[in-house]
Amino acid sequence: MNTSPESPAQGLLSRGMAALLGAQFLSAMADNLLFVAAVALLKQASDGDELLPLLQISFVLAFILLAPYVGPFADAFSKGRVMFNANLVKLVGAALILMGVNPLIGYAVAGVGAAIYSPAKYGILTQLVTPNHLVKANSLLEGSTIAAILLGVLAGGWLADRSVLLAVEVAAGFYLLAAAANLGIPTLPVIHALTSFRALGRLPRVFLSNMAVLWRNHDARFSIAGTSLFWGMGASLRLLMFAWVPAALNILDNQAPANLMGIVSVGIVLGAGLAAFLVRVDQVNRALVGGVLLGPLIVALAPMNSYEMAVIVLIGLGVAGGYFVVPLNALLQERGHETIGAGRTLAVQNLFENLAMLGMAGLYFLAVAIGMKPVAVAYGFGGVVTLGMLVLAGYRLRHSARRARSAAGAVESLPD
Question: CA 225 to CA 138: how far, in whole Å?
């Protein structure tokens, strides 16, 4: 097996980058179709919202349990082939739902595929583009993902209101197309080969070592904390939409919350585009502006009873989120590439992001269990995000100030 260093990176318009963007678009669209369909099936089964947090929990468990393995797996094989096989696993999840298996189980199997897919799709960027293109490449990948989310949730809501099983069938078809698109990604050298099956038993210990390496690096620690808070928020928000819309806006179909989720996606595309042109990796503190705005925007959304005003707030929420998360992803990929490898870095990031999703889904489940109404949950949710972002911003800015003082002192100590 080839164990040479990463192949020479190319530009943003290479064939490999085009194949990656196409495959990611199709796979992400299928993911969101399947999510909306699974939500609709659970609401039919329970006649309420109490099972919705369990859907998120069933999906993220694979990311947590497989965290020590998926990063090395992504780095041990050509990443395009890793993504191909991951899409086939997602297809199995959709097929199980079509066969009548509980949607929580089918969606959990799709989560296994997603856990395998994620380190490869981001880790491959360092092999496809040069470092000075990394933020822009992340923006293109995020833009492709968000466009797919937008179309996926819109199509999912429309299809689920007509036939939930048809929505699942369409998702399965897109997984097949995504797998075919993955075959267009060139075969790339492996980063860290697994020399034997015995090495698999050492992966949990290696994973803990990788985690320690990243956690000792302030930039990596900051990026992981920030993206974890963002994606924990995003995962809970899309569940909350299906409970908040009927309660606050008195709209009872699946299309309206799906449309509002799509509105957030539009905002994230805009925010990611702004970040690509306004924030370099060495200027990542600028992204904190977007992060600090997220919580207050959720609080502003909570009491609204106007669909039009909700659209405006959710666009703003998406812009703030895209502007915040894209530079942090690029910073983490650069630090990971310098230390333990991109695939392993993304596996560590996925663990923390999915622990955040699990924690927020657990809080949501607890809030529903004690009888909190969706509007009250939205207020509490916005407060938690606000507090978390303020703590993160304060931590980062204090560190940056100390580093600036240290640099200034070092310059002053130089001989004339």
Answer: 18
Beta-bridge mates of residue 10: 129
Whether the CB-CB separation of 359 and 232 falls below 8 Å is answered with: yes
Residues of the domain holding 239: 15-190+202-404
The answer to whether 173 touches 94, Cβ cutoff 8 Å, is no
Other CB atoms within a 10 A radius of the CB of residue 399 amount to 15
AA identity, residue 378: A
The structure tokens listed for 212 are 């320690």
Q: Does residue 108 lie within any of the structural domains?
A: yes
Helical residues (DSSP H) of 47-102, grouped into ranges: 52-65, 67-76, 79-98
**Is residue 105 a part of any domain in this protein?**
yes
> What amino acid occupies position 37?
A
Entry pTM:
0.77
pLDDT at residue 46 above 90? Answer: no
- More confident: 409 or 74: 74
Evaluate whether residue 410 is within a structural domain: no
Give domain status of residue 3, yes or no: no
**Residue 135's closest CA among 149, 125, 148, 146?**
125
**What is the number of structural domains in the chain?**
1
CATH of the domain at 259: 1.20.1250.20
CB 40 within 8 A of CB 254: yes
C-alpha to C-alpha distance for 232 and 353, rounded to whole angstroms: 6
Residue with structure tokens 């303020």? 390
End-to-end CA distance of the chain, in Å? 54
Q: Which of the residue ranges 130-139, 144-153, 180-189, 311-320 has the most confident prediction, judged by mean pLDDT?
A: 311-320
